[in-house]
């Protein structure tokens, strides 16, 4: 399946490429299906977010390491929970990479943004429906380094030691910092907007809470 | 209040930029102790790298070495002669790549050792290209070699030898008499060399010995050609004489009697500067040679010219330092001052100069690098980009201050993030380049980083390019000479291989998108097995390089 080792790890045969893409799609839908149910409106809104963020990523591609997906994945994770956040991250990665370049690295980018979505779901970014701005800004900065480290694992090749990998990561630090600054700008400019757009979608936590309350009240 | 203070700070920052740029200050950038030996000869800058040799010990375990450093002070390689004896005084001789009737050669560093060995090594890694031997009588080579088209003429202990630069093959070897620090002068008509007995020899271009003249004393430098003949600074027990020798009649004229222990004179156009234990003297030769100016100093080593019309002369006293003399075109000494370092002491090596740096070595074995904040005279015109950037910062700061004053802090923060992000995007290429240059390179075991024994031997010591299409197809070309950047070498190789490449200009520099229609996820390069971290127009390469392009 692997033809050779390139800058992002092995160069995939077309079959391997398809296998990885299909596996990621299945994984994304698995996360969506196992997430708490949502209405058609919610599904449409989630789909719209996927398409919109994909388009934004493609548009911003000329700017080195300015990644709108990171902030979006963090907010989706925070607002909708880990499962839908991860599904969002995988779908955006797949769709955007189809347009700007698919390969072995797709797997690691999807993993990186999924990790960011999980991080968002674990942090208290919302406080009574409002942003905890300080924590949000810290989280978007941290998630840039988290994503870059995970995505960089794709370059690991046989014979590449820990020291070489560390040197490789060190070379990328200016780009990591730029990623963090880009995230901060996105969070400041579009954080409240995305929050409002996602307001109609219930988070897994609130959905589970409402189910419990429904049963308790009706019980 | 906040508005006013922000505006004031921004304006001050703006005004400080040109003031700061105008300040001139030499500051110590780095220093390294090269051990027990002296640095007797001047460091040499070649291909933006520094080369220096140590000397002066041959009885204990330590041995003289030749070092190569980056301009940032990182040692690239060193080469030790286990068999050399006595003082290694022969100046290092860099040679740019070229070709002639006796063959082609890559960039070379020629080293003459006191054990009579002549070595040509690759400046990039110190590996040998060729070597030759010469006679030893107490010591071997101690003088300066002379480049002669596709040959080098080496002053040996008892004469001179001429070698082809391509492979070191001996063209001729001529016996004269014993010499010490006696460099050779190559002219279109003949070769000239002095000896310890004060005889100035002419050697014909075919190696046969021509006429000679006895000037008494000792000649311990390469004679200097002037329009009317030759100049030599002859050493006597208690004094020295600057003499003119008419090359057609061999008649000698003493221009000046000065102090003992002459230095190695330096020449620029009609102007020659001499030194000894008493004076530094300028001589201007037009229709005749005339003494122009003198300054008292103890100078027994090598001079060097700074890019700014100054000569640097090592002061050979316990207090040491370097005398900096400003000289005009007529040879007048306009001013002089002393350049001091924290390791001052005896010294005979002159500085080597980089674009904004000077590199000094002394008898204590200290190699020091100083940088100057003032741009050199031949630097390009004033770069207005920082001023423009400062102006933008000032405008943005003013707007931010106004917004903050009106309590619309959300918009203040938004504008602030956009400003920081925009500036970061503008600065990223330079910052990333500077950052990467200071880090070690990442080794990639799957690329061609070393010599392949199946390659033709004619490619040894040249630049080799591999285009790796990833599907067992590789195009390998070699024998390239003199390319200084990855971009230049790549373009030459593409042209030779008749391959068409698509190169896209990005904010970070040119990006190789496809070769021969094969794009994959783009192309990446490796230089000597190390992953390229700069755009190909910014990545410099050595004269001996293996450049590996690989489809992603």
What's the rounded overall pLDDT mean of chain A? 81
Structural class of chain B: alpha+beta
Mean pLDDT of chain B: 84
Query: What coarse outline of chain B follows from CA principal-axis ratios?
Result: globular
Number of strands of chain A: 4
Structural class of chain A: mainly alpha
The count of β-strands of chain B is: 42
Oligomeric assembly = heterodimer
Q: What is the CATH topology classification name of the domain at 92-222 in chain B?
A: Lipocalin
Low-confidence residue ranges of chain A = 1-8, 204-219
Principal-axes geometry of chain A comes out as: globular
Strand order of the largest sheet of chain A: 1-2
Q: Could you tell me the strand content of chain B as a percent range?
A: 35-45%
**Alpha-carbon distance between the termini of chain B?**
56 Å
Q: Give the name of the CATH architecture of the domain at 92-222 in chain B.
A: Beta Barrel
Radius of gyration of chain A: 18 Å
Largest sheet of chain B: 5 strands, antiparallel
Which strand-content bin applies to the residues of chain A?
5-15%
* H and E order of chain A: EEHHHHHEEHHHH
Head-to-tail CA distance between termini of chain A: 56 Å
Largest interface: A-B, 33 and 34 residues
What does this structure look like?
The complex is a heterodimer of chains A (219) and B (552). In chain A, 74% of the residues lie in helices and 6% in strands. With 219 residues, chain A is mainly α. In chain A, helix 1 runs antiparallel to helix 4 (82-100), helix 4 runs antiparallel to helix 5 and helix 5 packs antiparallel against helix 6. Chain A is globular and about 50 Å long. In chain B, 15% of the residues lie in helices and 39% in strands. In chain B, strands 20, 21, 22, 23 and 24 form a five-stranded antiparallel β-sheet that branches. A five-stranded mixed β-sheet of chain B has the order 37-36-42-40-41, with helices on one face. A four-stranded antiparallel β-sheet of chain B has the order 1-35-34-33, with no helix packed on it. In chain B, a hairpin with a 4-residue loop joins strand 22 and strand 23. In chain B, helix 1 (2-22) runs antiparallel to helix 2 and helix 2 (385-405) packs antiparallel against helix 3. Chain B is globular. The A-B interface holds A 3-8, 11, 62-64, 66, 101, 103, 157-160, 164, 167-168, 170-171, 173-175, 177-178, 181-182, 184-185, 188-189 and B 413-414, 417-418, 420-421, 424-425, 428, 431-432, 435-436, 439-446, 470-471, 506-508, 520-521, 524, 531, 533, 550-552.
